[in-house]
Design goal:
With 288 residues, this protein is α/β, with parallel strands linked by helices. The protein has a single domain, classed as NAD(P)-binding Rossmann-like Domain (Rossmann fold, 3-Layer(aba) Sandwich). Helix content is 43%, strand content 16%. The chain has nine helices and nine strands. It has helices at residues 3-13, 32-43, 55-67, 82-95, 120-145, 161-165, 171-195, 235-241, 257-268; strands at 23-27, 47-52, 71-76, 102-105, 154-160, 198-204, 220-222, 228-230, 279-282. The strands form two sheets. Strands 3-2-1-4-5-6-9 form a seven-stranded parallel sheet, with helices on both faces. Helix 2 links the parallel strand 1 and strand 2. Bound molecules: nicotinamide-adenine-dinucleotide. Nicotinamide-adenine-dinucleotide binds at residues 27-28, 30-34, 52-54, 57, 78-80, 106-109, 129, 158, 160, 204, 206-207, 209-212, 221.
Length: 288
């Protein structure tokens, strides 16, 4: 093969897309918004590390990306565990030939209760999941972000309208998701000047996943001590809202997981190269 032909051939094989050649860790990407983000990132040329506590779903998402021409590595485990966080970073760096470009801190769930009935366990778990775990991950990833190799680096932290506006019954979650904002801005200020790292939060409104489905559908997660934590919104609460459920959303509908994930891709992409330290509201216009 002539030099010119082999040059063209290598260009054809080179990953293409908004995230071509970048290595991304997406936590909680076994289902819901994170899984959609993993698929979209892979379509845009990223090598995706699928990280989730649900081993089977984690593997299924990675397999489906690999079998459709993308590149993914499933690393199952509990983001609340320090040794898992360390091994996740190590495996991601090995997969990325020594580089990690993007972290999406997305893993999470709600464990609701009114203030006077909220237990210490509910409080501690939700703060640990949405604040301490992302901190552990970002700190462990520091050697891969505090670099000057001319390649982009960015961190996207998933927040919620509950963190921006508060939400009755979600004191733990509202505090944790509000914390994500300060966490994000501090990363942007510490790692932006010398290393060009961007950090942004995305606050979702009502997105259709098991977190917002009817509680009676039976979805649950297993808490740190093996407790069963039911997910979703009680049908009674949904019925009480009736036709007015989306009345305060200018687009008059909830968002899909794909729409939510698309906003993560947009923020992580070079199209947002001059956006850092922001909380982007993905809510259909709710709470303007
Ligand atoms: N769905 C919404 O309306 C909405 C609104 C605002 C914010 N959010 C946030 O978006 C993020 C994604 O939520 P979703 O709606 O896609 O939920 P989801 O339940 O569909 O997906 C969350 C994923 O996180 C994983 N996960 C949970 N705990 C984990 C742990 N300890 N270690 C590793 N993985 C873990 C779950 O297994 C699951 O696959 C969450 O941070 C959530 O708080 C969602």
């Amino acid at each position: 093969m002539s030099d010119r032909v082999s040059q063209l051939a290598s260009q054809l094989n080179y990953p293409r897309g908004l995230l071509a050649g970048q290595v991304a860790i997406i936590t909680g990407s076994g289902q819901g918004i994170g899984a959609e983000a993993a698929r979209l990132f892979a379509k845009e040329g990223a090598k995706v590390v699928v990280a989730d506590i649900d081993e089977k779903k984690c593997k299924d998402v990675a397999d489906s990306i690999n079998s459709s021409g993308g590149s993914a590595l499933g690393v199952p485990g509990d983001i609340l565990k320090r040794d898992y966080v360390d091994s996740l970073i190590k495996k991601a760096a090995d997969f990325g030939n020594g580089k990690i470009h993007i972290i999406v801190n997305n893993a999470g769930y709600t464990w609701d209760g009114v203030i006077h009935k909220m237990t210490d366990k509910q409080w501690d778990t939700i703060i640990a999941l949405h604040c301490t775990a992302p901190f552990n991950l970002v700190r462990a990833a520091a050697p891969y972000f505090r670099v000057k190799d001319g390649e982009p680096r960015n961190i996207v932290n998933i927040s919620s309208t509950s963190g921006v506006h508060g939400n009755a019954g979600q004191l733990n979650y509202a505090l944790a998701k509000a914390g994500v904002t300060g966490f994000t801005k501090t990363i942007a200020k510490e790692w932006g000047p010398a290393f060009g790292v961007r950090a942004n939060s995305i606050a979702f409104g009502h997105i259709l996943t098991r977190l917002t489905a009817a509680k009676e559908e039976g979805a649950f997660v297993t808490g740190p001590d093996g407790e069963k934590i039911a997910l979703g919104i009680p049908i009674k609460q949904k019925q009480a809202a009736g036709d007015g459920a989306y009345a305060d959303i200018p687009l008059r509908r909830p968002g899909s997981a794909t729409e939510a994930a698309s906003s993560i891709l947009a923020v992580a992409s070079p199209l947002f190269s001059y956006v850092s330290g922001q909380t982007i509201m993905v809510t259909g216009g709710r709470n303007m």
